[in-house]
Each structure stands twice: as C-alpha cells, then as structure tokens.
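User: Okay, second chain of the day. Same drill as before: sequence in, structure tokens out.
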Amino acid sequence: MKIKKIKPAQIVGSTLAISLLALANISHAFNLKVAGFIRQEMSYSIGSKDNPWQRGSPDIYKGGVGVLENTASGHPGAEAVWDGLRAQTAAAQGLPAPANTDLPTSFSKPNLDKSNDWNLMATRAEIDFHMNFNDNWSGFVKVRGYYLSDVQNTYTVPSSFEDGGDDNNFKVDLHGKCASVLEVCDDNFMIDLPSAYLDYQNGPFWMRIGNQQIAWGESIFFRVMDVPNGLDLRRHSFLDTATEEYADERISSPAIRVSYNLNNDWEIEAYAQMFQPTVHPRVGSSYAFINSPYVIRNDIGFDKVDDQINVGVRLKGQIGDLGLTFIAVSRHNPDPIFKWGASNQTSMDTVFPGFSTQPFKVNSLTALESLGLLPGGGDFPAVGGKEGPRNGTTNSSDWMMGAALSGLDGIETLNVLANEFPFVGGFFQQAFIPAGLMPNADPANGIYVTNAEEAKLNIDTFLSLIGDVGADFIPTYASENIFGFGMNYIFFAEPDSFLDQLIVRFEMTYTPDRKWTNNGSRKPITEDEWITGFALEKYHRFSSKFPATFFSFQWMHKSESDFVGHHLSTLGGDLNKGPSGGESHGGWDAVAFAFQQPSPGLKWRYDFSFLYDFNGSWLLQPGVRYKPSGNWTIETFATWMDSQDTGSALTPIDWTDEVTVRLTYQF
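Assistant: Same drill. Structure tokens below.
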C-alpha cells in the first residue's frame, strides 16, 4: 500500500490546476466574508523548577551543576588510559611526555539557572477568508501570524560561540528554514497559511484541495485514529486548553481529499497528502524537551523523505443506532526516530585519529587543554551554536540522567555507540589496558558495559580527556501501515437521566512493525503496536437555570509506547541504574476526564481537564472563560503537572506549572 511515485509537486500542481479550472467557471455570485482576531497570550511560571533541558539548568537532576563527581578518578584502568593518552597526545604534537598527573577528581559545570518568571509572552493574529463562488465551489484561507517575545533571562556567551545565546523559537530546516510549505519565519515570529483550500460539492460527492488539516480524532488528550497529521509544538507546546483537541497544534500540508456518500448511512473518504513531520519545540526555547547540547539535524533527515506522500481511506456508516468507522492509512510516521550522526569535528583528528567519525563534539576543552596537549585551546565553537563553555554533557551523572529524561537507556546507549562507531568501540576495547575490558564485556556480541557503574566509569574517563560534549541526532521517518476500527453508540433512556443521550465511543488501531528510537542506533526497535481508546461523553442539565454541562471520560491503552511516543523498554532509568521497562504489567495506560459548564447567558464558561498516567504522572488543568461582549474574550487556565520517576510519560515536561491568560479581540 506504499505510494512512491506520486510527488508533492504533483499534489501542489494538481491543486493549482483544479483551482484554476474552478475559477474559470465562477459565476457572478461570488461572496467573501472576512473575520479574525488578535490575541495576547501569556503564561506565567508558578512552579519551583526551571526547564531541565535549558543550558546549564540545575534541575536536570539534584546537584546537577557546580562540582560533579568523577568516578574514573583513582581507578587503575582509567588512570592507565589517562597516562597513555597524555603521552600519545604529546608525541603526536612533537612535545615531551608530560609529568605524571592523576585524573581530575571532579568536573565543574556552571550554574546558569535563569529563574524565568514567564514561559510565554506572545501575540497572535488570525484572519479567516470565507469564499463562496457558486453552488458547487467554496474556499477558505486562514492567515496566522505569531510573534513570541524573548522571555528567557539572558547570559553571556563568548563570541566564538555562534548566535551568542540567542533563542531560536521557530526556524527549522524542513522547508527552507521553516516548518511548512506555506510559512515564513525567523527566530521570534512565524506567518503561515494553516488553511488554504477549495471545496467542491456536487450531490453525494465532495472534494477539498489545498493546504489543510485532516482531523480524524475527537479526544481531548489521546490520539488513536487521529493519524493523518503530525503536530507543530513550537508555539505553546501541547499546553493549550485540552478541550481544543490539538486544533492549533495539528500541522497542515497540501492534500487532495475526497468523499462520497454511498447512501444515507455510509460515506467513504480518501486523501493523498504531502508528508509533513511533527515539529518539536526548538532546542533551547522555553518549552524545549531535547537536551540543549544536542542538535536535531532536520536538514539531513527530512531531505530523504521530503518527496513522500501519505495516503488513507476511511469508511463511516450507521447500522441502526450503532456508528462504525474503518480506516487504513499508509504513511511515513511524522514522529521521528533518532539516530546518532558523525560529529565531523576534524579539528580533533590530529590528536585522536578518527575522532570526526564518531558522534561527540567537543564543546569546551578541560584536562588535556590545561596541559597544552590539544590544538587551539580555549573554547571550541558551541555544538548547537549557543551552549557556552562547560555546558555540554559534563560527566557521567549528566549523561545518565539526561538519557533517562530523554527516554533513553544510558547504559545501552554506550553499547550502541561502541558497536556502530569504531572510534568509540576502539576506545572501550583499549581504554583500560592493562586492566582489560569491563569484567562482563563481550565485544563479540556487542556488549561493552552491563551496568550503571561500568557505564559511568567509561563516560567519566572519556569526558576527562576531551571535556564537555554535545552531538548531532539525525531524525528518520519510518513508513508504516495503520489499520483502525471504531464504533460509537448513543444510549436513550428516561429524559434528563445520566444515561439519556450518553455517547459511548471505542477506537482501536493496529500498526504492524512500528518503529521507535533505539538508543540512537541505526537499527530501530520494531514491534507490532495496538492502541485502543474508550470514551464516554454526555451533555447533562443539572438545572433548568443553567445550560447543559459537557462531560467526557476517556481511557487509552498502548501496547508498546507511552503518551509521548517513547518505547516502554527504554523508560525508567536514573543516575544509578538502567531502565525498568515502563509499566510492570505490560503496555501503557492512562485516563482523562474533562467537563465544561457555561453560565446562564453564556458570558462565563468553566473548564476542567485531568490526565492520569498509570506510570505515575498527572496533569491538571482548570480554567475559566469570560466573554463580556461579542468582540472581547478573556480566558485563564492553570496547568499543573507532576511525575514520580523517569518511567512516567510526563517527566520530561513536568516542570511546566503555569498560569496562562489569553486576551482576545474578535473582528
């Protein structure tokens, strides 16, 4: 079912051609309606922690800055490596062998805690153009502008570091320097056309051509059958009100979409859409959840799939009171799989031959630099353009906790590096001469380290030699086929009872050979995945004086991964151990509950949403909306999150306790 011959240019070209044919037949009944709004959006931090992924954050783990332990200091094997490589380095540069010195007893990482008060300060403007050409043709264009003020407290970065610490909130190497085809952007703003399409309706036949979202989901947190589009998380991550159901985050792209009513009860729909990947918050931005010394090389990964087309078909119908839905989708998964990329840092090859072939990039030099044994000295250009000296991954604690928070196995990741990059494998095999390899090592079977103690010893020895590091991750986008089934049923009972008009919805998808990040390996984790969702929804009037209250209760089960897409086998590590494998009973489960209560006269609306992950994290989001007039709306909602450990789905973002205010003027 994979589509390989259709190119995005063909979709765009077909869209333009059909549009021109349509315009050529427009009658004089053209009608245009313009509406829009301008909104100020502000999120104030009410939590006790800063984003742990920011450069030099003390919150990546307890005691994560300042003087950090060096577990290699005093270890006979590590000291032997230290002595041998110091001598080797000196000889390579024609220098005399340095005097005997021991490995540094500790590392130092500066505290750049910026104690930000604001997470978001943004101005949004949207203008909608509704067009009616004749009885068959209509159109819609949405223009969206978004400006994000700098809210992060700044710090000084040496001039040798590109960008000098400036924050990039929007630029991404996908389509030019922006995320989507119809977008212009810079560090602090983006202007795009999330919708720009024509609709054609003729009896039972309907067609939409142009840039569009395809929303196949109706859940407040969970996405089971909502598989056509990825998400754009650059603005407010996914932290808008949950009841908006990813309306602003779902990322659009050019598509042709058609449907046909087979009869009064059954409809079939199909689409072909240009592949558009999910866009994460930019590294170093307010809501980033990727460690700042590490760079996502979209310019490499996306170029391999930028001409791909996703296709899907959906059949919906009714059998009496029972609604049925069937879907089949062939797509490239918009959520990336990450693998390590070579550093290409050739400046280190004169000292360590082949260094540029492995992933780590030296961010700033430490021990060998102080002995005058490394070229250049001083600060190297920052890995991601903005980390600043001593701000990469600094020691083994930094490594282990950074991996755990990222949904990686800090132990197995070292085995991946040793197996796939000969420079790292060579270091591990020779590193502890004359002490030999780690006691349980089995290089023939790809095993170099087997526990946290061994992993920490190796990484501390490595970082003692070259200083703090970053690296490149290359995203890949795997092709997959998804098959889904859904049903819904409306109960009718005694009027005004809780069962009357209760909607019960069930959804299920099956994806054979789905792929996930495997600790940065070129070979991803591959398993079949089942995802199921169950929902109860109802409007219920408690009083004749108040409008009906909307209730929604939902449950989701995923057999192999968690809410954010991490494979369960890589979750649950910490400073001193590898992953626990996620949920002990197998799979991942969560429940969600939400309600909305308008006031009499509809000036006020009270919202409440709650998400609970059975692995130990939760999100609570109460809110209130006030509409004093037809033009003005004031909304405020709070978001609280917490998690028990790194096996919990929300751990990477559980620092995000905030109060958001949105002031909107509609025209």
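DSSP finds eight helices and 25 strands in the chain.

User: Thanks, on to the next one.
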